[in-house]
Amino acid sequence: MILCLILPLALGACGAQPVWAPDAAVEKAIVRTGNPPSVTLFTVIGKTSGQGGHSALMIDGSQRVIFDPAGTWNHPWVPERNDVDYGITDRMYKFYIDYHARETWDVREQRVPVTREQADALIRQAEAYGAVNKMFCARATSEILRSVPGFETLPHTFSPLKLSDAFGKLPGAVSEMHYDNDPDDNSGVLMVEIEKSRGAERRTNAR
After folding, report:
1. What is the pLDDT of residues 31-85, one digit of tens each?
2. CA angle 28, 33, 38 (to 5 degrees)
């Protein structure tokens, strides 16, 4: 079983590092998509091994956030509080996938519809969970899901694949795979995205 332990080889160190963005930054970054409420499970899967390497959640309720336990994804426009990332626009959602999909890893995206109450309860649970230790990404994700009515049947597991298999059997689940041939060292992906953001900011300020 590979779990988050192997992701440091490609994604950097996975560990509990408390981060707390200021209130003003979080408030400014709030994204309300207007989409029907949903919760999306991301599972990073090794291309050759078929093993699960990482689990994360995107929750779309009163706002859209990503819970990225022990993850390394970041962006200067996305404030973080202990593995909860705010400001998840469509662009950041796509960037999150692009960051993880590469020549050695694929990303499975699974989405299920939920009520607004379920979505906001999941956001609160993610916010209250705290920074997650390495190797505990699937465990933390499964605990948060299982704490909300409607997800009690999911396993309490350390395995991203076991969680993904069970999540895919929930009513209304829709799955999509993401593939990419970006180099395993994806520092270039980060640099390109940050430069795009800086360019957009300069154009906005020039108006």
Report:
1. 999 999 999 999 999 999 999 999 999 999 999 999 999 999 999 999 999 999 9
2. 120
